[in-house]
Write a structure and sequence with these properties.
The protein is an alpha/beta fold and about 650 residues long. A hairpin with a 4-residue loop joins strand 9 and strand 10. Helix 21 packs parallel to helix 23 and helix 22 crosses helix 23. The longest helix has about 35 residues. It starts with a strand and ends in an 8-residue tail after the last helix.
């Protein structure tokens, strides 16, 4: 594509420019068209639309271009002293007079060039200035004729106006030196513009693909350009270019920045529908501000980016793998629990899951997270009972660099920060001591955390799903669990029924586990009596205990039918059932002993049978494991630390448990 456009005002100029462009080896980048005055202006506008970097012309045509708001740079072809001297000598020769009266019909620029050295010429030179119109040229020519000029020097329009007259005419032409100089100047301008356009295209690309809103401002605060993101973020139906920035984005410090050149960083701009974070960077050249670039983005995006950075620092274990489809069961009890959980998933309130060990509390929690609006955020699971009191603060809330001896030199992000924009699952919440309960209560109230060694609270946005395998209300009545924390957690209660109360699920799940854990190439089925033996077992460890039992069966049976003997052998490693009359470790179904329904409230002494049943279950597991406490914890489907805590609470010696 041509980068230099030449509007030749005569045929001679057209030929000369073509020849010189070839000599300078720039012919491929030069577009030459012939035209003068209005025709020359039309040609120049076409050249501008075709994308030339610079336009070259002379005389009245250049005068017209200068006043026509052509945005492309213009190069005027000057009239040198050598050119003028040659024309005047020619006029003297044509008239045959020793000192002829020569009339120069020219435009303002030519007049100023000639006037500067006309006194050096030994000639009677009279200058008749015209404007860039045919009428003004004809008027200047008529005046020269009335004043008895001996010869006329002028351009193409002057020559056409003299048609039919006998007075000598000398065309006002630019010589090769002037034309060559104009082409050289145009070449430099075109090169500079190509570099500028390259930078502009890069800047436009950055603006177009930037997620931030960007305004390019002039020195007076007018919007020179706006990227698509700016129009989208501000819901602008029309392009804001040409408007004042304060009418579109009222950043209070804009005028001060454009006046002083001091940049603005991280300013908050509040509009009716959004809060933005903005920055304004001025363009300063030679001590003057020539414009500025304004960038802005919603404050919520900053929060989202911060949360993403937090999540990327510790991705392990921060995702939920299970969905409601993973909850196996055919009983109406488990189906009702699943339907309730699905309804809870759609809202953002705190959920308290209650259920015996092994009923699938974390499975339900993960399913609710994946069905919630926070599904794209992190899922942070915390076993509260496994957190030592000395580490609770740093694990819950994190710490800054150098907060204490032995701290990670880069600091640490706490569980609640990691859960920002997602869900935090607080398992075994009853295992928190008094200090832990008070710290948890505060973060649930304030929704902000203070890192150890930090000096500012950090807002966090999370949903809480808490779980407990013991009923919290008796703990509240005995003063072992804070009542205010209980009601913070007990917003959407959900009881997950124990396996023994799920009609038909023992047989259903046993068949699933048998198919899942059978050794490769082995096909197993339950004999009716064996399935009946499984169904009659109370399953204090619930689904987890059933799956472990089936695993043991799969390892002991090489193929064929699982007999009642196989089942009895596998069950011999499970804890004994509670004695008749002692009741279950956990009572499923809706509670009637909460303060909201006082007529059914339980007395403080009613917890004694529950405590004794729990103690008997632990002792049975320890006997089955021959005193190996880790194996006993595995039988029960709980962590070893949870077993130790319960043994201490129930007065069972770790050295001689039975």
């Amino acid at each position: 594509m041509a980068s230099i456009g030449v509007v030749a005002t005569s045929r001679n100029m057209f030929r000369a420019m073509s020849r010189l462009a070839a000599e300078l080896e720039i012919a491929e980048s030069v577009m030459i068209r012939q035209g003068t005055l209005e025709e020359g202006l039309r040609i120049a506008r076409n050249m501008e639309q075709e994308g030339v970097d610079v336009i070259v012309s002379r005389g009245g045509t250049m005068e017209l271009l200068l006043g026509a708001n052509i945005r492309t740079p213009l190069v005027n072809i000057a009239i040198s002293m050598q050119d003028t001297s040659a024309m005047l000598r020619t006029a003297r020769i044509l008239t045959g007079l020793p000192r002829p009266k020569i009339a120069l019909v020219a435009y303002a620029k030519v007049v100023s060039d000639v006037a500067s050295f006309s006194a050096l010429l030994d000639m009677d030179l009279h200058i008749y200035q015209s404007g860039p119109t045919r009428e003004s040229i004809v008027a200047a020519l008529e005046q020269a004729l009335r004043e008895k000029a001996d010869a006329i020097v002028g351009g193409v329009t002057t020559q056409n106006a003299l048609a039919g007259r006998t007075i000598p005419f000398i065309p006002h032409e630019s010589g090769d030196a002037s034309l060559r100089q104009a082409l050289a100047e145009a070449k430099l301008i075109a090169y500079a513009r190509s570099l500028e356009q390259m930078q502009t295209e890069r800047f436009k690309a950055v603006m177009a693909f930037s997620a931030e809103g960007i305004f390019l401002l002039e020195a007076d605060g007018g919007i020179l350009a706006a990227n698509p993101a700016a129009r989208k973020l501000l819901n602008l139906a029309v392009n804001p270019e040409g408007r004042k920035v304060e009418d579109v984005f009222p950043l209070a410090l804009t005028a001060e920045c454009l006046s002083t050149g001091v940049p603005v960083q991280n300013e908050i701009v509040t509009l009716p529908d959004m809060v933005y974070i903005a920055a304004l960077t001025p363009f300063v050249s030679q001590g003057r501000v020539s414009g500025a670039i304004l960038s802005f983005q919603p404050a919520t995006r900053i929060v989202e980016m911060e949360a993403k950075i937090r999540r990327s620092r510790s991705a392990k274990g921060m995702s939920a793998l299970h969905r409601f489809g993973d909850i196996e069961g055919v009983s109406p009890q488990i189906r009702e629990a699943g339907e309730t959980a699905a309804r809870y998933a759609a809202v953002d309130e705190t959920v308290l899951l209650r259920g015996e060990t092994g009923t699938g509390k974390e499975l339900f929690a993960q399913a609710m997270h994946n069905a919630s609006p926070r599904r794209n955020g992190p899922f942070v699971a915390v076993n509260c009972a496994a957190l030592p009191a000395t580490l609770l603060e740093s694990e819950f809330f994190g710490y800054e660099e150098g907060a204490f001896t032995g701290a990670n030199r880069r600091g640490k992000t706490g569980f609640f920060e990691l859960a920002d924009q997602g869900t935090i699952f607080l398992d075994e919440v009853a295992g928190l001591d008094g200090h832990g309960q008070s710290r948890l209560l505060r973060v649930l109230q304030e929704r902000s955390i203070l890192r150890l060694g930090g000096d500012a609270y950090v807002p966090v946005n999370f949903r809480v799903i808490a779980a407990s395998n013991v009923d919290l209300w008796p703990l509240v009545q005995r003063g072992e669990f804070r009542q205010d924390l209980f009601f913070r957690l007990h917003v959407l209660p959900l009881v997950i029924p124990p396996l023994r109360e799920r009609e038909g699920d023992v047989r259903h799940l046993a068949r699933l586990f048998l198919a899942r854990h059978a050794q490769a190439g082995t096909r197993l089925t339950f004999a009716p009596e064996a399935a009946g033996a499984l169904a009659s077992h109370p399953w204090p460890g619930n689904v987890r205990e059933l799956e472990h039992c089936v695993r043991r069966i799969c390892l002991s049976v090489t193929g064929g039918v699982v007999s009642p003997a196989h089942v009895r052998r596998a069950l011999s490693f499970t804890p004994p059932p509670a004695r008749e009359g002692e009741g279950a470790l956990f009572r499923a179904g809706p509670r009637s002993d909460l303060p909201t329904v006082p007529e059914g409230a339980a007395s403080a002494g009613s917890a004694a049978p529950l405590r004794e049943a729990e103690r008997a279950t632990l002792l049975g597991a320890l006997r089955a494991a021959e005193g190996n406490q880790r194996r006993a914890a595995a039988f029960l489907g709980i962590n070893a630390s949870t077993l130790y805590r319960k043994m201490k609470k129930l007065g069972i010696s770790r050295e001689r448990p039975f």
